[in-house]
Amino acid sequence: RKDVKIAMLPGDGIGPEILNEAARVLNALDEKFEMEWADVGGAGYAAHGHPLPEGTLKLAKEADAILFGAVGDFKYDTLERSLRPEQAILGLRKNLKLFANLRPAILYPELAGASTLKPEVVSGLDLLIVRELTGDIYFGQPRGHRSAPDGAFEGAREGFDTMRYAEPEIRRIAHIAFQTAKKRGKRLTSVDKANVLETSQLWREIMIDVSREYPDVKLDHMYVDNAAMQLVRAPKELDVIVTGNMFGDILSDAAAMLTGSIGMLPSASLDEDNKGLYEPSHGSAPDIAGKGIANPLAQILSAAMMLRYSLNMGEQADRIEKAVKKVLADGLRTGDIYEEGTKRVGTKEMGDAVVAAL
Ligand code: IPM
Ligand code: MN
Questions:
Q1: Which protein family is named in the record (predicted)?
Q2: What is the value of ipTM here, to two decimals?
Q3: What's the domain count of the chain?
Q4: Does residue 3 fall inside a structural domain?
Q5: Which residues in the chain come in under a pLDDT of 70?
């Protein structure tokens, strides 16, 4: 059979270091993968003048899956928006129609002490945020800067964005969320701001409509402000959350931090056919880049998610996840999850340990 082709896009900051470790883990499996590497983000801009160079986009389109590191660095903060590193990930999502973003927040029992919340509030936490990724105020038109056309500030400079969702966009993410919930705890919480926003009112209507096709899944609704509160009050009462792009961005950071370290959490961004981009939930952490201390586990677990969701290699995904649990049980910790009594290791040593545990 033809080798599976993976687009390896390391990006900026700690991206290259952690993606290297994921590559070593993939290479330690029995399957052969064809990995092709390309610049993206600030690295894409530096080498080719654009955060999402044409060659990189082409590679991403023709690959069977994409393993993405992270993008962003202080030194690109002054570039105009269209050239900033973030445009790389936004452009990949939009161009490849990766509308379904799955962000698990799992607390590994060994790391219960690393959470800022009390152990009894978070121990056993296993929740999943399904975030719509190609619509909402992130991409809605019109947007821009202008002189305010009316109102109390008429004539003043104003910036504006448009929050919008079309019914089919809501429907397709609803189906993903219900299907996911069906395979888990059969509960789905839809998060919106239907008491204020028209977009949310439509969102809620469609969620209720789609729920009729999934009679075994219990749907409830939460306003986003309340959802933020419930996430820190009693996160274990939540199982699967489905929400729009903007609310999902914010809530998924909060959910991630419940687990003690954002350095542990992978994510998947999928299109209609389960082709996907896989990336750690954390950013490029330029402050610790190049020091060899970053936690590679979120990247390694992203590779496992890739095997499971896009490449139909669930067994190999299980192997990687088990290996990660083993190194944690053995007491190995990078700085972000270090506690007294454990063994502090660097990026490479952590990768070595996962490879050895496979
Ligand atoms: C994320 C990030 C991105 C987003 C940025 C880098 C554009 O915060 O993946 O959550 O806002 O979606
Ligand atoms: Mn974010």
A1: Belongs to the isocitrate and isopropylmalate dehydrogenases family. LeuB type 1 subfamily.
A2: 0.99
A3: 2
A4: yes
A5: 1-2
